[in-house]
Amino acid sequence: MRTPKDEDEMNRIAQQIAQSIFKKKTDIAPSKQNLYAYDKADEKAAAEAIRFFYSRFDLQIGTYKASLFCKINGKETKLKSFEFTLYDYHINTFKSQPEDYKWSFGITGPPAPHKQVWTLISKLE
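-> C-alpha coordinates emitted (125 positions)
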Protein backbone atom coordinates (compact mmCIF):
# COMPACT_ATOMS: atom_id res chain seq x y z
CA MET A 1 0.00 0.00 0.00
CA ARG A 2 1.33 3.41 -0.92
CA THR A 3 2.00 5.85 1.86
CA PRO A 4 1.94 9.66 1.65
CA LYS A 5 5.75 9.49 1.72
CA ASP A 6 5.67 7.13 -1.30
CA GLU A 7 3.37 9.56 -3.13
CA ASP A 8 5.76 12.44 -2.43
CA GLU A 9 8.69 10.38 -3.68
CA MET A 10 6.80 9.30 -6.82
CA ASN A 11 5.86 12.90 -7.58
CA ARG A 12 9.45 14.07 -7.05
CA ILE A 13 10.79 11.37 -9.38
CA ALA A 14 8.12 12.08 -12.03
CA GLN A 15 8.94 15.78 -11.91
CA GLN A 16 12.65 15.04 -12.21
CA ILE A 17 12.08 12.91 -15.32
CA ALA A 18 9.72 15.46 -16.89
CA GLN A 19 12.15 18.31 -16.25
CA SER A 20 15.03 16.29 -17.67
CA ILE A 21 13.13 15.65 -20.92
CA PHE A 22 11.81 19.23 -21.08
CA LYS A 23 15.33 20.61 -20.67
CA LYS A 24 16.58 18.50 -23.58
CA LYS A 25 13.73 19.79 -25.74
CA THR A 26 14.35 23.43 -24.85
CA ASP A 27 18.09 23.08 -25.50
CA ILE A 28 17.30 22.40 -29.18
CA ALA A 29 16.23 25.23 -31.47
CA PRO A 30 12.54 24.82 -32.44
CA SER A 31 13.46 24.60 -36.12
CA LYS A 32 15.76 21.63 -35.38
CA GLN A 33 13.30 19.67 -33.19
CA ASN A 34 11.77 16.45 -34.41
CA LEU A 35 8.26 16.51 -32.96
CA TYR A 36 7.82 12.80 -33.65
CA ALA A 37 10.91 11.68 -31.77
CA TYR A 38 10.92 10.98 -28.05
CA ASP A 39 13.68 12.41 -25.92
CA LYS A 40 15.22 10.28 -23.20
CA ALA A 41 15.31 11.39 -19.60
CA ASP A 42 18.60 11.79 -17.81
CA GLU A 43 19.96 8.28 -17.08
CA LYS A 44 20.29 9.00 -13.36
CA ALA A 45 16.64 10.12 -13.12
CA ALA A 46 15.40 7.07 -15.04
CA ALA A 47 17.53 4.72 -12.92
CA GLU A 48 16.08 6.23 -9.74
CA ALA A 49 12.53 5.68 -11.02
CA ILE A 50 13.32 2.08 -11.92
CA ARG A 51 14.87 1.42 -8.49
CA PHE A 52 11.83 2.95 -6.78
CA PHE A 53 9.46 0.74 -8.80
CA TYR A 54 11.30 -2.49 -7.99
CA SER A 55 11.68 -1.58 -4.31
CA ARG A 56 7.88 -1.35 -4.03
CA PHE A 57 6.76 -4.08 -6.45
CA ASP A 58 5.30 -6.96 -4.49
CA LEU A 59 2.67 -8.53 -6.73
CA GLN A 60 2.87 -12.26 -7.21
CA ILE A 61 0.99 -14.76 -9.33
CA GLY A 62 -2.26 -15.57 -7.59
CA THR A 63 -5.86 -14.68 -6.92
CA TYR A 64 -6.65 -11.33 -5.34
CA LYS A 65 -9.74 -9.78 -3.84
CA ALA A 66 -10.54 -6.10 -4.32
CA SER A 67 -13.29 -4.37 -2.37
CA LEU A 68 -14.87 -0.97 -2.90
CA PHE A 69 -15.83 0.88 0.27
CA CYS A 70 -17.81 4.07 0.77
CA LYS A 71 -17.56 6.20 3.90
CA ILE A 72 -20.48 8.52 4.70
CA ASN A 73 -20.69 10.45 7.96
CA GLY A 74 -18.01 8.25 9.48
CA LYS A 75 -19.79 4.99 8.63
CA GLU A 76 -17.94 2.69 6.24
CA THR A 77 -19.91 0.37 3.98
CA LYS A 78 -18.56 -2.24 1.59
CA LEU A 79 -20.26 -1.69 -1.76
CA LYS A 80 -18.75 -4.47 -3.87
CA SER A 81 -16.05 -7.10 -3.79
CA PHE A 82 -14.34 -8.57 -6.81
CA GLU A 83 -11.90 -11.38 -7.34
CA PHE A 84 -9.24 -11.46 -10.05
CA THR A 85 -6.23 -13.58 -10.88
CA LEU A 86 -2.80 -12.40 -11.95
CA TYR A 87 -0.79 -14.80 -14.08
CA ASP A 88 2.86 -14.83 -15.15
CA TYR A 89 1.95 -12.74 -18.21
CA HIS A 90 0.56 -9.95 -16.01
CA ILE A 91 3.56 -9.89 -13.67
CA ASN A 92 6.05 -9.87 -16.57
CA THR A 93 4.15 -7.06 -18.30
CA PHE A 94 4.08 -4.98 -15.12
CA LYS A 95 7.80 -5.59 -14.57
CA SER A 96 8.66 -4.55 -18.13
CA GLN A 97 7.11 -1.09 -17.68
CA PRO A 98 10.07 0.55 -15.90
CA GLU A 99 12.25 0.12 -19.00
CA ASP A 100 10.03 2.76 -20.64
CA TYR A 101 10.47 5.25 -17.80
CA LYS A 102 13.47 6.74 -19.62
CA TRP A 103 10.97 7.92 -22.26
CA SER A 104 8.55 9.10 -19.55
CA PHE A 105 5.97 6.44 -20.49
CA GLY A 106 4.06 5.52 -17.35
CA ILE A 107 5.55 8.48 -15.46
CA THR A 108 4.29 11.77 -16.88
CA GLY A 109 2.03 10.18 -19.45
CA PRO A 110 0.25 6.92 -20.09
CA PRO A 111 2.21 3.69 -20.41
CA ALA A 112 3.16 2.52 -23.87
CA PRO A 113 0.05 0.92 -25.45
CA HIS A 114 1.60 -2.55 -25.64
CA LYS A 115 2.07 -2.55 -21.85
CA GLN A 116 -1.61 -2.84 -20.98
CA VAL A 117 -2.77 -5.74 -18.85
CA TRP A 118 -6.27 -7.23 -18.88
CA THR A 119 -7.80 -9.62 -16.42
CA LEU A 120 -11.26 -11.02 -15.80
CA ILE A 121 -13.05 -9.84 -12.69
CA SER A 122 -15.82 -11.84 -11.05
CA LYS A 123 -18.24 -10.55 -8.48
CA LEU A 124 -17.98 -12.27 -5.09
CA GLU A 125 -21.09 -10.94 -3.40
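The CA atoms of residues 10 and 52 lie 8 Å apart.
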